[in-house]
Write a structure and sequence with these properties.
Layout (H helix, E strand, L loop, with lengths): L4 H26 L7 H29 L6
Helix pairs in contact: 1-2
């Protein structure tokens, strides 16, 4: 895989951040740290999951579009 290292590093960092963010939010929701109602927990879980998935897809698309060096 001929990819520029700085592009791969940025994309992997974005993907790891999305997974850590999702795991942190799951920990908060599972242990009921903020005393949320059921409705609030459902909304926060959905928004967190969608945001994490969006960031993962952005990282993958960034790798595809910017990853290969430009050839002339």
């Amino acid at each position: 895989m001929a990819m520029r290292p700085e592009v791969r590093r940025r994309a992997i960092l974005l993907i790891v951040f999305a997974i850590v963010q999702w795991g942190f939010m799951r920990y908060i929701l599972d242990n009921q740290l903020f005393n949320l109602t059921t409705y609030d927990r459902i909304v926060i879980f959905c928004v967190s999951s969608l945001a994490g998935a969006f960031m993962i897809f952005v990282g993958l698309i960034y790798m595809v579009l910017k990853g290969n060096p430009h050839r002339e």
